[in-house]
Amino acid sequence: MRTAIIVGGGIGGLAAALALHRAGWQVDVLERAPEFGEVGAGLSLWPNAFRALEVLGLDGSVRQRSVLAGQAGIRDPKGRWLSHSDTADIERRYGPTAMIHRAELLDLLRSALPAAALHSGITVHRVQADGTLHHSDGTCRGDLLVGADGIRSVVRASLWGNGITPRYAGYTAWRMVTDPVAVSEGSETWGRGARFGYAPLADGRVYCFAVANAPQGAADPGLAGLRRRFAAWHDPIPALLAATASDAVLRHDLYELPPLPTYFKGNAALVGDAAHAMTPNLGQGACQALEDAVVLARSLDGGGLSAYDRLRRPRTQMIAARSRRIGAVAQWASPAAVALRDTALRCAPRRTFTRSLAPVLSWTG
């Protein structure tokens, strides 16, 4: 039986392990944390992610534990609509969109794997292109090595070198899950150099995110600072922040990877953020990791890692570039530029947004 060692037990790593397991591989997932878990908040699953989940056998379970709803559109801080999303048309053309807590998706992926395949508390120090790993418990080797260890990947640094440095996007983000609040649909609000978005979760809580321009490593104003910053923004934003506990807020500066020249070396391949960490402006980070997993397993039965690279690198780098451009426009702070942006959004036909998503959402595997 072919053996695969996956470094990283997040969504990309577990999805890759599951795809390979279903294809007949013996898999071992090495996770640095003392236990498999997820401290994140919510994530969006677009139609392309559901096609990957269908291949993994999890689409039905995900539907049961998520809210099937797309984003209603974009508003300005006073609550006036800049752009409405035709969620019904998106579903007709491409399929469902859902919001789920990261911990829920991680639990579904983990539960679908043999318990013996999951190894926590193991720190990988370096790897070799032949599939050999040197870690805190010794040395092991697999026919395939999968680097799913995030934007600061040890696998990538070992094989691609330390010259590939994540780039700061110019803005920071706060993610949080509120206490239960009655919210029927999600939306996003664009201001001057700041944004706020929210979407209901299946248990009545609400996933929220805030984004603001800031110097890299700037001091965190905390929840109190967020409440002050967004106090005058439209309902229900102040109420959502009021329903948030201070220990429920995660704050991270946002980074992305420069485009890599290849996603594989020897018997090693990169998936997820280790290969193509992108800004979250398209909500495609987890979706692309799920796609990676499915395509990797299929490629190994025909074409090998070069086929995986050929299929995944152009697509993920295209999506990363789109996300970067959207973030740049969304974070404009000049009054003149914001007025121009908002006018353009108001004048654009609704179908323009749906058509623009086609290269991202039409993926079929």
TrEMBL record:
> What are the recorded GO MF terms, alphabetically?
FAD binding; monooxygenase activity
The entry's keywords: Monooxygenase, Oxidoreductase
Please list the residue ranges annotated as the FAD-binding domain. Answer: 4-159, 262-300
The cross-references to InterPro entries, in alphabetical order and at most eight, read:
FAD-bd (IPR002938), FAD-dep_Monooxygenase_BioMet (IPR050493), FAD/NAD-bd_sf (IPR036188)
Pfam families xrefs: FAD_binding_3
Q: Which domain of life is it from?
A: Bacteria
Q: Which PANTHER family match?
A: MONOOXYGENASE, PUTATIVE (AFU_ORTHOLOGUE AFUA_6G14510)-RELATED
Q: What is this protein identified as?
A: FAD-binding domain-containing protein
